[in-house]
Design goal:
Layout lengths: L12 H12 L5 H14 L6 H13 L4 H14 L16
């Protein structure tokens, strides 16, 4: 069997796809950096959702960041706290 036949549909794909689409057209704000890092972690190594993984890489390139730089920036942002509080969402708990 080829690997393509083993690709899986991520259970949160339909919720995450619009977020990825918006990241492709936006700037690297603190919130968007946090969203990009969260989605990178979610899809890292996932056997499927290759379009999302590819688009997340495109966002990194557009913003001129490596994965290491992204995670360094977002660790710093999260250590300060409140990155999601002003949005009125409970997405800080959405790390599945």
């Amino acid at each position: 069997m080829s690997k393509a036949n083993k690709d899986q549909q991520h259970p949160l794909y339909n919720r995450d796809r619009p977020i990825v689409e918006s990241l492709l057209t936006q700037q690297a704000t603190d919130y968007n950096l946090a969203e990009l890092a969260r989605l990178r972690i979610r899809y890292q190594g996932f056997p499927g959702a290759r379009d999302i993984q590819s688009d997340l890489d495109k966002v990194l390139q557009q913003w001129g960041l490596s994965v290491e730089e992204l995670f360094e920036k977002t660790r710093s942002l999260h250590s300060l706290g409140g990155i999601y509080k002003s949005r009125g969402k409970k997405e800080e708990e959405d790390w599945n």
